[in-house]
Design brief:
The protein is an alpha+beta fold and 90 residues long. 22% of the residues lie in helices and 31% in strands. Strands 1, 2, 3, 4 and 5 form a 5-stranded mixed sheet that branches.
Length: 90
């Protein structure tokens, strides 16, 4: 387990109301003596329970409210893919 200084817990809230929880850790690609090699790791999914527990324990918390609109749904005509595949076979 990391210390409170080298880890942060993230909650992302989307306009739909969905919440996603992540953990990021400070890592080094060379040595801890080389500050240029220190960066945050890729966010790793965690449970809501873990997020709330770490928040209560005093770990660094980030709450991000995202305002991105949902993806646009593009309807496809049924059978289009099958027709294209059949045309390529002949």
């Amino acid at each position: 387990m990391h210390s409170k200084v080298t880890v942060k817990y993230i909650c992302e809230v989307y306009p739909s109301g969905n919440c996603y929880y992540y953990k990021q850790e400070l890592i080094t690609h060379d040595s801890w003596d080389n500050p240029g090699s220190i960066c945050w790791s890729t966010p790793r999914p965690i449970s809501k329970r873990t997020y709330l527990l770490r928040k209560k324990e005093g770990y660094k918390i980030e709450e991000r409210v995202l305002t991105k609109q949902p993806a646009k749904i593009i309807p496809f005509k049924r059978g289009t893919v099958e027709q294209q595949l059949n045309m390529n076979k002949t």
